[in-house]
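Researcher: Going back to the complex we discussed earlier. I've cleaned up the inputs and rechecked each line, so this should be the final set. Can you rerun the prediction on the complete assembly and write out the structure?
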Amino acid sequence: MNSNEKQVPAIVVKRLPRYYRYLSELLKTDIKRISSGALSRKMNVTASQIRQDFNYFGGFGQQGYGYNVEYLHKAIGEILGLDRGNKTIIVGAGNLGRALANHDAFERRGFIITALFDIDSSVVGTRVNGKPVFHMEELDDYLSRERTDIAILTVPRAKTQEIADRLIRSGVRGFLNFSYTELKTDGMVAVENVHLSDALMTLSYKVKRMDS
Amino acid sequence: MNSNEKQVPAIVVKRLPRYYRYLSELLKTDIKRISSGALSRKMNVTASQIRQDFNYFGGFGQQGYGYNVEYLHKAIGEILGLDRGNKTIIVGAGNLGRALANHDAFERRGFIITALFDIDSSVVGTRVNGKPVFHMEELDDYLSRERTDIAILTVPRAKTQEIADRLIRSGVRGFLNFSYTELKTDGMVAVENVHLSDALMTLSYKVKRMDS
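Model: Rerun complete. Updated structure for the full complex:
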C-alpha cells in the first residue's frame, strides 16, 4: 500500500465508485480518452475536484490529452479492490437477501455471491439466482472451507451483532450491514451500513423543503 | 419554512435520520432526557457537533438539563416531514421492489406504501405485503386519483428516465432511485439515489486497506 493512500478523505473514497461506474459506461463506447472537464460535467463534480481526487492516487496521467479511459477504469478498479473477485455471502435469505442475490450489478463489479444462509426451512436447500441457500448451522463449517471476503447482513436487528461476531471469528473482514444497528467490532474489520429508511427520510426532508 | 433552514449543510441533513432513529429507540425506554454528551457517545459524533447540528433548527431546548427525548424526537420527525404520512408507490415489482414493499422500517417512519406498479403479468394483480400490484398502464390514472408524494424506482436503467418524466408530469415530487442512472429533472423535484453496488465497492476499498 502506498502510505499516502491512508489519508484519503472519506468523501473522496465515496466518489470512487461513481467514477468507476461512469468509466464502465464509457468503456462500452468508442471514447478512448476523456478530459477532467468532460468527466466533470457528467459527474457533477468540478474538474479541479476531480484532479484533486485523482492526485491522492498519483494523478492517473497527462491532463492535456485527457485520461485514458481503459487505464483509468482499471486503476480505479484496483484501488477499490474489485480486481480481486471478492467472495461474498448473504446472511439472511428473506425478501431483501434474495433480492440482493438477484442484483446483477454486484457480480458486474466483481463481487461473487457464493452462498446464502438462513434458518427458515422453506428457503434452506433452495437456490436463489443459482446460489445455494444453506442453514445457519452450516455457516462456521462453510467459512472454514471457503474463502469469504464479505458478508452482506440482512438478518433481524436483534441477531445482527451475534452473527457478525461469529463471522468475524471465522475471518470475514467486510460487512455490508442492512440492519438498523451499529455493529460493535474490534476495529479490525470494515463495515458499511445501508440504512434504506434513512435515504427515504432524507428524501422526505428535501421534498418538504420544495413544498414550502 | 424558516429561511435559515435553507442553508442546512447536506452533511447535517444526512445525520437527522440517524438522530431520529436513535431517539425512536430511546422512546421505548424509560429515559426521558438525554445530554448532548450521552447522545454523542451513542452517535459517534462529538457533543459540540450535535449542538451545532441542532442549532440549525433553533437548538431544541436547554442543554444543562439535556434534551427532552419525546420533544426532540417529534421535532426532528417534523423537520424530516415524517409527520405528514408520505404516500409512496413502488415502480418496479421485481425482487428488489417486492423486498422494499416488505420493508417494515418504511411504514414505521411514516412512509405509507400505497401500491406497486409493473408490466410483468405474473405479478400484476397480486398483492405484496397487502399492497396491490397494478399494471404500468394504470399509473397515470392512479396518480390522478391518489395523492402520491414519493416514488421508489426499481425499474431497469433504460426505462428509469422515461418513467420518472411520466411521474413528474403527474406531480410526484420525490424519487428514491435504485437504478444506476442519474435522473435528469427540472430541479423542481427531489431525488435520492441508492446505489447498492457503490456501498459494496466502498466496503471493498476499506477491506483492501485493512489487508495491506
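Model: Worth noting: DSSP finds nine helices and nine strands in chain A.
Researcher: Good, that matches what I expected from the previous run.
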